[in-house]
Amino acid sequence: MVRHYKLKNDKGLGLVFVMDRLVKAQEVGCLYVVFFDVDSRKVLRSERLCEKAGGFGFRNYWFRPVKGAVDHLPPIYRQVKAGIQPAKPKP
User: Fold this and answer.
1) What's the rounded Cα separation, in Å, for the pair 31 and 71?
2) What is the pLDDT of residue 91?
3) At 10, phi and psi to the nearest 5?
4) Do 70 and 47 form a contact (C-beta atoms < 8 A)?
């Protein structure tokens, strides 16, 4: 998917959010946070985050999961820049 993006820059680190699901009954929104190398378009890290929805109005209600995901970005960004892969979950 990121391979087909038309970008102004040809170097650096790219970031995109891909919405996965919005579940009103569970009051949750899930999305993928995807970091990629702009030059090669190689995905460096993709992590699924689920956050609680809430707020007044349609936009604010479903924006809250995005805002929650943004709060998780600094440690993920540092790991991507350092080349650290996330720990594999134990079965």
Assistant:
1) 13
2) 55
3) -115, 5
4) no
